[in-house]
């Protein structure tokens, strides 16, 4: 796996972004990989992020962003309360 991994996290199965960004990374000699994968249940998002420590960025669709805001707000609150996030 590349040193820098950029994950595309979306509910969609297909996206033009994977081809576009991997070609861009290659032509610009950027050591990164853009990976597209599906999350069947958006509520599992925090667990998926925690399970992928090589994560360096996210790109999500607008409908997914709207669903993620309350999930991330709750997740960040729990991390702050637990002392895992400062």
Number of helices: 3
Order of helices and strands: EHEHEH
User: What radius of gyration results from the CA coordinates?
Assistant: 14 Å
Strand order of the largest sheet: 2-1-3
Helix content: 40-55%
Structural class: alpha/beta
Which geometry do the CA atoms define?
Answer: globular
Strand content: 15-25%
Mean pLDDT: 76
The poorly predicted ranges are none
Number of beta strands: 3
State the end-to-end distance: 29 Å
Major sheet size, sense and barrel closure: 3 strands, parallel
Question: How would you describe this structure to a colleague?
Answer:
This protein is of the alpha/beta class and 86 residues long. It contains three helices and three strands; from the N terminus they run βαβαβα. It has helices spanning 17-27, 45-50, 62-82; strands at residues 4-10, 32-38, 55-59. A three-stranded parallel β-sheet has the order 2-1-3. The longest helix is centred in the C-terminal third of the chain and has 21 residues, at 62-82. The radius of gyration is 14 Å and the shape is globular. The relative contact order is 0.21. The model has no long low-confidence stretch (mean pLDDT 76).
Features:
single chain, 86 residues, alpha/beta, 3-stranded parallel sheet, 3 helices, 3 strands, globular
């Amino acid at each position: 796996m590349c040193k820098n991994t950029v994950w595309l996290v979306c509910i969609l199965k297909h996206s033009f972004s994977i081809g576009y960004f991997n070609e861009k990374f290659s032509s610009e000699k950027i050591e990164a990989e853009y990976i597209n994968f599906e999350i069947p249940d958006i509520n599992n998002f925090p667990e998926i992020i925690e399970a992928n420590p090589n994560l360096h960025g996210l790109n999500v669709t607008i409908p997914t962003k709207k669903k993620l805001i309350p999930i991330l707000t709750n997740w960040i609150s729990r991390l702050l309360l637990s002392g895992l996030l400062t």
